[in-house]
Design brief:
Helix content: over 70%
Number of helices: 49
Largest sheet: 2 strands, antiparallel
Distance between the termini: 71 Å
């Protein structure tokens, strides 16, 4: 079945060829090219068929299908021999250029005899000589064959590199790469890198460059100590070749780079992103190159003890690192042997062995903002200090007892204290109890199995609550309470029911309409929960002091959450909620002090400090926090220190003391590393440190904290929070000019399985893609940025609940389309933005975009684009009218002033100079003469001066009226000088000097 309707005439054929040329190389483009050849054969004209065949050969060549490229070229050569007059200069150039493509395709196929390769080069030389063409391209292919065979290349290199370039020589960038590779093969890294400089600096480029050169230059850069350059080249270069079957070797060299720099986890991530190459690379040469690099990566991962990790590989089955490595090794070794058999050398096997024998060049090189180790990507990997914060050796974790009886008793004892080491005990017990051969101790001190199962359920419920899974937590606490009842432990049952009451109150109200309603419902639920907790406390007898203290703490916690909830709605200072909380805290503190329950004393003091903070009494909160820290350092428990330091850090930030806040939060993070990962919310600590660092003007440090915070949330299953934080990190990276870092981070996030499968919140995924599109634009990848913006504009058109976002996305899309010269599509996108703007006004943004589109069209198309440009300005005028009617004030100059100036500029670009001068006069009137002083007056002076300059240029140069133009300029210079804006006079005096010179 054809993918499109077949062209009915040659005009339609050429339109289809142009459309196909805009597609990326791959199966879609190739299949379409095959269909267009079939269509072209129906016409009686040879030239359309030749053009269709040329497109098809290009699709095969850059789609990694070398077996088919020579077949198509044979047809072209036959047509040339039979009808040489049909080939004009363009077609003749294309034909002789592609002799080189065929030479490369034949080299890539081990089934082609060596004699046939040499015969083809002879054919190329003979054809070039007969056509009177220079032989430099022929000698280039002869050199490439010598290098492929592993022969002594010195003579072949000199015969090629010593000749002058001709019209049919490979592009400058490709030849630079070949010269660099010659020096690289000779072991001269420095000379190779010097040769590559024009390509790596962006001075020379082509279809394959600089991505090809970048992949080869990575290891030489490392070997010469230029690690920062290697890192930057990896980020930019990988993006230029990823998922491209014709650049499988380049992708492979990036995998190899990861393997040799301690970035094995990133290597596996990139391998997964390029899993299509296992199936789509039809070139044996490219396949050997790619598979060898894959084996280098997998060999390294396996050597580090992670052979069981999943890996993306050949389709049809799932793979582990170990299994895939064995498969890859066999296939790559076979390909190398086939090439060596054909060539009569051992070059390919030797090169493969040399790559596999390379030792890592660096233990660790931070490549991306999302650096992870293999331990961290393991499915059951625990969080460690390298992720959660600074490493610490101040405390040794208590050993988990081997004796089952001791283990149960220690778990309960630690749990009673609130000690974080209880987690390890419960985790070990959960594993033991789940075993089929578990035998419960017959020991009165341990109690029945029923009690242990209740203990484990209560611990699981606490974990669910920590993950904000409140419905699950409530159900588990209720189940535990029932088991405690059955075990004859009413005090334990009461505590579990109390926890269930609190968890139930925290379940979000799904049916509440709007944030205020949700806040009101939650406040009511917490009030009800507190009442129930008090009743439960009063009705339960026989409680131990520790149990009663926990119930009192739950009562205070309910009121603390109520105050926090009401505070989020803007009523944090009312005594209605503060006084009852402080009263409950006093009850807890008094009771815990009487019974010397250290942990609950600390919790009471922390709740009191938090209550003051939520009530807005920061001095009281700081005093309480200082006292609590002194107590904790003297009496403990030490595991509360990070949390209290974090609170004091937030208080210092409230007092605008960012330096003190940074010190406290950093200390909290350092101390948190002493305890199990979930004792303290280290993700929040990192996020708060990021905020503080921004206040201190340390954005790079803030960026590191943001990425660590996000990764912690991701590892703990808080994916929405993680992706939101990562989105902020990407935007900060972009603001810092670290464009490739931002793109690499976003590419990594968008490749996450749930994101790729569309399971993440669609608006959050769209935000990630939007930031990536802006980063691509900042990185001058206009084509990719435009494609992403167009897709986002189409998707956001269905956001009926958020037309404002669609307006802004469609508007940005329109500008990108305008920058690409596609003004018809830009007009459609602008109309979408205007329609959405009518529902959710974005006056200034839309006005800016419409004026920019007008400028672009007039500048690119001149008089031919004037009508379209004026239509954009007419729309901008309507937006300005709407803004004025709505009382909207622009953040910069007024929309009317900006519009008048743009009318002047657009008309000037299009040659309508009288209209331009009239519009600029209006803009000057609206701006008014600049006043003295800095700040807004300085900005107004700059805008006024630019308007004068453009008006004088139109009047003096294009309308050829220099005298009034000079009068205008001299008067403006005098006004600006008198107002103290001397810098703004410089372009005016320069233009005046030019006009006087021309008089």
């Amino acid at each position: 079945m054809p993918t499109t309707s077949p062209p009915q005439n040659t005009d339609e054929l050429y339109q289809a060829l142009r459309e196909n040329d805009r597609r990326p190389y791959g199966r879609t483009r190739t299949v379409t090219a095959e269909e267009l050849v079939d269509a072209a054969e129906q016409f009686a004209e040879p030239v359309p068929l030749i053009d269709a065949l040329l497109e098809l050969q290009e699709a095969y060549t850059y789609g990694s299908e070398p077996r088919k490229s020579p077949v198509v070229f044979a047809r072209l050569l036959t047509l040339f021999d039979e009808q040489p007059d049909v080939f004009d200069e363009r077609l003749r150039h294309q034909l002789f250029w592609r002799f080189k493509w065929v030479a490369g395709a034949l080299r890539a196929l081990p089934e082609i005899p060596l004699a046939s390769l040499r015969q083809w080069l002879t054919e190329m030389r003979d054809r070039y000589e007969k056509a009177g063409l220079d032989l430099q391209p022929y000698y280039g292919q002869a050199y490439r064959l010598a290098a492929h065979l592993g022969e002594d290349t010195a003579l072949a290199y000199e015969l090629w590199a010593g000749r002058s370039r001709s019209r049919l020589s490979d592009c400058e960038a490709c030849e630079i790469c070949d010269r660099a590779l010659y020096h690289l093969a000779a072991g001269d890294d420095e000379r190779a890198l010097r040769a590559w400089e024009p390509v790596l600096a962006g001075q020379e480029s082509c279809q394959e460059e600089p991505a090809r050169s970048a992949s080869y230059a990575l290891l030489p850069l490392l070997r010469t100590g230029r690690t920062d350059e290697a890192r930057a080249l990896h980020l930019a270069g990988y993006r230029g070749c990823r998922r491209n079957p014709s650049m499988a070797g380049e992708v492979g060299r990036h995998l190899e780079f990861c393997a040799l720099t301690g970035n094995e986890a990133r290597g596996l991530e990139l391998l997964a992103e390029n899993r299509n190459l296992f199936d789509e690379v039809d070139s044996p040469q490219d396949g050997l190159d790619f598979l060898t690099s894959v084996e280098v990566l997998l060999q390294r991962v396996e050597a580090l003890g992670h052979g069981e990790l999943p890996a993306a590989g050949f389709p049809g089955r799932t793979w582990t690192v170990t299994g895939l490595r064995a498969e890859v090794r066999g296939r790559a070794a076979d390909l190398a042997a086939r090439f060596d058999d054909r060539n009569g050398t051992s070059a390919h096997t030797d090169r493969r062995s040399a790559r596999l024998d390379r030792a890592p060049l660096l233990d660790a090189l931070e490549l991306t903002l999302r650096t992870r180790s293999l331990d961290e990507v393991s499915p059951a990997a625990p969080l460690d200090a390298s992720v959660t914060g600074s490493a610490s050796t101040a405390r040794t974790t208590a050993a988990v007892p081997e004796s089952l009886t001791e283990l149960i008793l220690q778990a309960r004892s630690l749990e009673g204290e609130g000690h974080p080491d209880a987690q390890a005990c419960w985790a070990r017990l959960r594993t033991l109890v789940a075993a089929r051969d578990y035998a419960h101790p017959d020991d009165p001190a341990v109690g029945p199995l029923l009690r242990l199962r209740a203990d484990l359920l209560a611990d699981e419920a606490n974990w669910a609550g920590d993950r904000d899974e409140f419905a699950d937590a409530a159900a588990l606490h209720e189940e535990a309470a029932g088991l405690y009842d059955d075990a004859g432990l009413p005090g334990h049952a009461a505590l579990s029911r109390a926890c269930a009451l609190l968890a139930t109150a925290e379940i979000p109200a799904e049916d509440a309409d709007g944030p205020e309603a949700k806040t009101e419902r939650k406040t009511e639920a917490l009030t009800t929960a507190h009442t129930s907790l008090v009743r439960l406390h009063e009705e339960t007898s026989g409680l131990t002091p520790h149990q009663e203290a926990r119930l009192l703490r739950l009562r205070a916690t309910a009121l603390g959450l109520r105050l926090q909830t009401s505070g989020n709605s803007g009523t944090s200072g009312n005594g209605e909620h503060v006084a009852p909380l402080l009263a409950e805290v006093d009850l807890l503190h008094t009771f815990a002090t009487r019974h010397d329950i250290t942990g609950q004393i600390a919790r009471a003091l922390l709740l009191r400090a938090t209550a003051h903070a939520l009530a807005g009494d920061l001095p009281a909160a700081l005093t309480e926090t200082d006292g609590l820290l002194d107590r904790l350092r003297e009496h403990g428990p030490a595991w509360h220190l990070p949390r209290v330091l974090a609170l004091r850090g937030r208080l210092h930030l409230g007092f605008q003391d960012a330096q003190a806040a940074h010190a406290d939060l950093s200390e909290a993070l350092r101390l948190a590393a002493d305890w199990p990962a979930d004792t303290t919310d280290t993700s929040r600590l990192h996020a708060e440190l990021a905020e503080v660092c921004m206040h201190l003007g340390r954005p790079e440090e803030a960026l590191r904290h943001l990425t660590r915070s996000a990764e912690l949330d991701l590892r703990r299953g808080k994916r929405i929070d993680a992706f939101c934080t990562y989105s902020n990190a990407a935007q900060l990276s972009l603001d810092l000019g670290r464009v490739e870092d931002a793109i690499a981070l976003l590419d990594s996030l968008l490749a996450e399985p749930d994101v790729a499968a569309g399971e993440l919140d669609d608006r959050l995924a769209a935000q990630l893609r939007l930031t990536r599109a802006r980063a691509l634009r900042a990185g001058d990848d206009l084509k990719a940025a435009t494609a992403e913006f167009v897709a986002l504009a189409a998707e956001s058109a269905g956001w009926d609940d958020d037309p404002g976002s669609h307006a802004m996305i469609a508007a940005e899309t329109a500008v990108l389309l305008g920058e690409s010269g596609e003004f018809g599509q830009a007009r459609k996108a602008a109309d979408q933005a205007l329609a959405a703007h009518a529902r959710a006004p974005r006056h200034e943004h839309l006005s800016n975009v419409l004026r920019e589109l007008a400028r672009l069209q007039a500048q690119r198309q001149g008089p031919d684009g004037l009508a379209g440009a004026r239509a954009f300005l007419t729309d901008a005028g309507r937006v300005a009218d709407e803004a004025r009617a709505a009382g909207y004030e622009a953040h910069g100059r007024s929309l009317d002033t900006a519009l008048a100036y743009e009318h002047g500029r657009v008309n000037a670009y299009a040659g309508a100079h009288e209209e331009a001068l009239t519009a600029l006069e209006q803009a000057l009137t609206l701006l008014g003469e600049p006043g003295p002083g800095p700040g807004p007056e300085q900005q107004q002076a700059g805008e006024w001066a630019e308007c004068v300059r453009l008006a004088a240029a139109v009047e003096g140069i294009y309308l050829e009226r220099p005298a009034p133009a000079l009068t205008r300029l001299d008067a403006a210079v005098s006004r600006l000088t008198a107002a103290g804006h001397t810098e703004e006079t410089e372009p005016l005096t320069a233009l005046a000097a030019r006009l006087r010179d021309e008089e």
